[in-house]
Amino acid sequence: MTLKGRSFLKLLDFTPEEIGYLIDLAADLKAKKKARIPHDTLRGRNVALIFEKTSTRTRCSFEVAAYDLGMGVTYLDPSGSQIGKKESIADTARVLGRMYDGIEYRGYGQEIVEALAKYSGVPVWNGLTNEFHPTQVLADFLTIREHFGRLKGIKLVYMGDARYNMGDSLMAGCAKMGLNFTACAPEKYFPDPALTETCRAVAAETGATIRFETDPLAAVKGADVIYTDVWVSMGEPDEIWAKRIALLKDYQVNKALMANAKPEAILLHCLPSFHDLNTGIGREMGLRFGREDMEVTDEVFEGPQSIVFDEAENRMHTIKAVMAATMP
After folding, report:
1. Of 44, 122, 188, 262, which is the most buried if we count CB atoms within 10 A?
2. 322 in helix, strand or coil?
């Protein structure tokens, strides 16, 4: 199998076999790193990392992965590029494509990363858009497979606001790889109906199921994986907090919720998490609304069923696999 020259923009662009190949490659590269076996097979190549939205895990994952593969890295933060401001996306893509062997983009609309891929002439990797976060789901799937030994038939329940990139990407990924996906949220926070129909057509071929539920305890019954994310995303105004807390407080992952899943169920979270008051935003919002935690309690986040830091590490291994597989 070869993915050379392909861009990695969303999981719906790839077959289950291709996604499985990337997960296998990530596991192999992870084993090599743990054993300190050099794998700098892309020495002499260079990549550009465009971050219109900053991130600890995504930046560190791409940079360490690129260095391990022997590549040079240029990081462009929100002030370091004129993309879409003084220079069009198409022109930026064509300039960077002449200088770099691959481009990562993390920012806003999916149409931006699609345009970069169209005009650059080199592989483009989606580090996050408003609509999709495919490198995160690859890391999630590697983590699930490491823990359970399989993906097919695993029941994954996503708790909270399922309208955006994580709900979309997990639904698409589960459909592709045969996991049983449930989004548990108020009805207005379910994924886009058109995307849902696309994913259901894929699921019909792989044996996956896609369900929506408003009752948290009913949703997690028999779950292998409970997944959650922050209730308010980066860049959203502060006034959103009151509305989201009012609507999503009953969808918090807590001890009672975990107890209703399988005894061996695990917690996943793409991070960062407001599970305590030890962050600036967490402390501010916690004091404002009289809460010690938001989407997950500290007891569960720090408990034995939480493997969120295994998941965070796997961002780097799966991103490395994507770059290694697609770099021509």
Report:
1. 122
2. helix
- Per DSSP (E only), the strands in 206-288 are 209-213, 225-228, 266-269
Question: Tokens 């002449």 identify what position?
Answer: 98
Q: Which residues contact 204 (CB under 8 A, 6 or more apart)?
A: none
Instruction: Give the SS3 label for residue 239.
Output: coil
Three-state secondary structure call for residue 154: coil
Edge-to-edge strand ranges of the sheet holding 124-128? 72-76, 46-51, 102-106, 124-128
pLDDT digits (tens, 9 = 90+) for 98-107: 999 999 999 9
The percent of residues above 70 in pLDDT, for the chain, comes to: 99
Task: Measure the CA–CA gap between 135 and 126, rounded to whole angstroms.
Answer: 7
Could you tell me which of 149, 209, 147 has the C-alpha nearest to residue 177? 209
Q: Tokens for 256, please give them.
A: 């009672």
**Pairing mode, strands 72-76 and 124-128:** unpaired
Residue 305: pLDDT band by 50, 70, 90 thresholds?
very high
Q: Contact, 135 vs 170, CB < 8 A?
A: no
Query: How many angstroms separate the CA atoms of 87 and 116, rounded?
Result: 13
Q: d(Cα 69, Cα 73) in Å, to the nearest integer?
A: 11
Confidence of residue 84 (pLDDT cuts 50, 70, 90): low
pLDDT by residue (tens digit) across 31-78? Answer: 999 999 999 999 999 999 999 998 999 999 999 999 999 999 999 987
In Å, how far are 220, 229, 251, 260 from 256, measured between CA atoms? Answer: 11, 18, 11, 7
**3-state SS assignment for residue 192:** coil
Burial (0-12, 13-18, 19+ Cβ within 10 Å), 2 = exposed
**Rounded Cα gap, residues 205 and 25, in angstroms:** 24
